[in-house]
Design brief:
The complex is a heterodimer of chains A (about 140) and B (about 180).
Chain A: H1 2-22, H2 25-43, H3 47-75, H4 78-110, H5 114-133
Chain B: E1 2-5, E2 17-20, E3 34-37, E4 40-43, H1 65-85, H2 100-109, H3 111-120, H4 127-147, H5 150-157, H6 177-181
Antiparallel strand pairs in B: 1-2, 3-4
Chain lengths: ~140, ~180
């Protein structure tokens, strides 16, 4: 876990700069897709592959968080931004609470690998939704 | 009477901006040179100051937004700690002389309205935002599903790490996983 957070800390600045250079949509999709091999590497790995998987997972999480935050700011008008952020957090925390409960139940009752596999599988629809339905505004059209 | 604002990062240098005294009460959000709130004068460098190592947060140039988001992620916790421990924190705000307890009660009373507005806001935002929201929920759900299980899985299933258990056979001891690989 320490390796995960170290990778997140060290990558924060470069990732922010990358988002300004290439936009938010591609890093967001990449973050979802990167989560799949990283998770598989973790669950079917050993000591050494874990040392590779955890930074990858951390990098993927950082990429996802940062790009989605930036994308929300680009898409939502300033007058609605507070309400939208509050609403996103409200529902996200509900989903996170549910995720924790379901993950624990799957781990204990079905298989220890299942929550991780489910997580990798869920990355696919999340990425597809962004690919098909989320259109990034051009830099000049972004909300101030 | 005029007020002179010095750059936060180089206070001994020439003032970065000089404004009439009344202007410092203008609370127009980010980008203003200085703002007074609760008797505490907050001075921010203007956008022409190149000594400020921070990205120009809140400037209208949204090209730096991603960089700002990354920057804020890394400083979120340190900011919170400093705010909590600061002796110079301003006292709680009082709206029209109301005690803080009344404001809390007012906040609780307005909760249903806030909830309604928070849900209703999705009708007025662009379509892409709604789909981004759905993908965000899926992502947060899947992260929450396994983030607490990483350590448990690594220890009990992959058998990595931990202090060697004296009574346990070496081939079963998770702490000796690395030795077994070697």
């Amino acid at each position: 876990m320490t390796v995960l957070f170290i990778s997140m800390i060290t990558a924060s600045f470069p990732v922010g700069k990358l988002l300004d250079r290439i936009g938010r949509r591609i890093p967001l999709i990449a973050s979802y897709l990167l989560m799949i091999p990283a998770t598989l590497l973790f669950i079917y790995g050993n000591y050494y592959t874990t040392l590779l998987a955890m930074p990858l997972i951390g990098f993927s999480m950082l990429l996802g968080f940062t790009s989605s935050q930036a994308m929300f700011a680009d898409l939502v008008p300033t007058s609605q931004r507070g309400k939208v952020t509050g609403s996103v957090n409200f529902f996200a925390y509900i989903f996170m609470a549910l995720g924790g409960v379901i993950g624990g139940l799957l781990y204990d009752t079905v298989s220890p690998q299942l929550p991780f596999i489910m997580s990798a599988i869920l990355a696919i629809p999340a990425a597809l939704i962004v690919i098909m339905h989320v259109h990034e505004p051009k830099p000049e059209d972004r909300e101030a | 009477m005029r007020m002179a604002f010095h750059c936060t990062w180089c206070p001994n240098a020439e003032p970065v901006l000089a404004l009439p005294a009344s202007t410092h009460r203008d609370d127009d959000g980010f980008g203003a040179a200085g703002k007074a709130r609760n008797g505490v004068l907050h001075i921010e460098p203007n956008n022409e100051c190149f000594h400020d190592p921070r990205p120009h947060r809140g400037s209208n140039d949204s090209g730096y937004l991603g960089f700002s988001a990354g920057y804020e992620n890394s400083l979120l916790y340190s900011d919170s700690i400093i705010s909590c421990r600061s002796d110079s924190s301003p006292p709680p705000q009082r709206k029209h002389g109301q005690p803080a307890e009344d404001q809390c009660a007012e906040m609780l009373r307005s909760y249903p309205q806030a909830l309604k507005e928070g849900i209703g806001v999705w009708k007025v935002v662009p379509r892409s935002t709604r789909f981004l929201f759905i993908s965000e929920l899926i992502a947060r759900f899947s992260i929450a599903m396994n983030q607490t299980l990483f350590l448990v899985y690594a220890f009990y299933v992959l058998q990595i790490g931990g202090t060697p258990t004296p009574g346990m056979a070496p081939q079963l001891d998770p702490a000796l996983q690395q030795a077994r690989i070697m």
